């Protein structure tokens, strides 16, 4: 794991850390105000910190975690994929997307992924390691700085949404992801100050972790990557289904929805002649209406191409019929506006290739 960083620590832990370094406890608040409030990690810009203390504080609490290797832009610059290199050479990716009414960053929680879903480039690459809390948070801080500084067309703006839909299974890195949510959402100087309701955590269906998250007192959106309503096919498409079946996953999701009052997003990558059959749409609608009712919303995702994949997106008429059938069952269903396919930045395409 990377060296200790300010963003790994709670407020109390930060104060203890600076005291151990021979500094006054208030230095912790100063550092946090710069990092979370002003979005800077360069201690040389912190004029209120004595010059004699800066180097020690930088090396012990603000080490460089992620260095941008390169950016790839598409959608006239409004979608930017960044390849990051961590301290140990590990690579990962995040994607910043600007829309007329919001700006969203899609972040990674692991380098690679161990879930092995066959239609996902990240899953096919395997898991390298978990990211630290600070490595997760730093993706968000740097995206917020890009927006503030007007690096994305449209002028200076504000980052509004965070989705844990990049590389990795967030709930397989549970404690660090939950801690990262607090750093992202707590008000400055304890965090970046985004609303919990603007954060989405996506999972392939780790039912025990969903149940655990239900007790955290969070208001984040839960997204479940379901991809088919039947266990027979899901055992292949989402191998973790061999451990936690569809019914158990949806029961856990219902528990989260009932406890938080938050709608659950059901992610469904539509694959030609694989999971796009009318009967599967009918079964999906029936199952979700029964298990989640008004808390269910289906996000249909046209399958994004990945290298070597034998699968393709469903034709538009098939997609429209699928959506219609789910809606006919009384379940909210829309097609996701996919961004970044041209630069392998769309859902399921992140592979952290050093181009």
UniProtKB/TrEMBL annotation:
EC number: 2.1.1.192
Signal sequence coordinates: none
Coiled-coil features, chain-numbered ranges: none
Keywords from the named record: 4Fe-4S, Cytoplasm, Disulfide bond, Iron, Iron-sulfur, Metal-binding, Methyltransferase, rRNA processing, S-adenosyl-L-methionine, Transferase, tRNA processing
Extra information: Reaction proceeds by a ping-pong mechanism involving intermediate methylation of a conserved cysteine residue.
Function, as annotated: Specifically methylates position 2 of adenine 2503 in 23S rRNA and position 2 of adenine 37 in tRNAs.
A Gene Ontology cellular-component term: cytoplasm
Species assigned in the record: Actinopolyspora biskrensis
Binding sites annotated in the UniProt record for S-adenosyl-L-methionine: 168-169, 202, 225-227, 304
Positions of the catalytic residues: 93, 347
HAMAP family in the cross-refs: RNA_methyltr_RlmN
UniProt record, GO biological process: rRNA base methylation; tRNA methylation
Occurrences of domain Radical SAM core (ranges): 99-342
Location(s), subcellular: Cytoplasm
Positions of [4Fe-4S] cluster binding: 113, 117, 120
Name of the protein this chain belongs to: Probable dual-specificity RNA methyltransferase RlmN
Family classification: Belongs to the radical SAM superfamily. RlmN family.
Cofactor(s) essential for the protein: [4Fe-4S] cluster
Gene transcribed to yield this protein: rlmN
Swiss-Prot/TrEMBL catalytic activity: adenosine(37) in tRNA + 2 reduced [2Fe-2S]-[ferredoxin] + 2 S-adenosyl-L-methionine = 2-methyladenosine(37) in tRNA + 5'-deoxyadenosine + L-methionine + 2 oxidized [2Fe-2S]-[ferredoxin] + S-adenosyl-L-homocysteine; adenosine(2503) in 23S rRNA + 2 reduced [2Fe-2S]-[ferredoxin] + 2 S-adenosyl-L-methionine = 2-methyladenosine(2503) in 23S rRNA + 5'-deoxyadenosine + L-methionine + 2 oxidized [2Fe-2S]-[ferredoxin] + S-adenosyl-L-homocysteine
InterPro entries in alphabetical order: Aldolase_TIM, Elp3/MiaA/NifB-like_rSAM, Methyltransferase_A, RlmN_N, RNA_MTrfase_RlmN, rRNA_lsu_MTrfase_RlmN/Cfr, rSAM, rSAM_sf
Cofactor comment: Binds 1 [4Fe-4S] cluster. The cluster is coordinated with 3 cysteines and an exchangeable S-adenosyl-L-methionine.
Listed GO MF terms: 4 iron, 4 sulfur cluster binding; metal ion binding; rRNA (adenine(2503)-C2-)-methyltransferase activity; rRNA binding; tRNA (adenine(37)-C2)-methyltransferase activity; tRNA binding
Entry annotated with the keyword Iron: yes
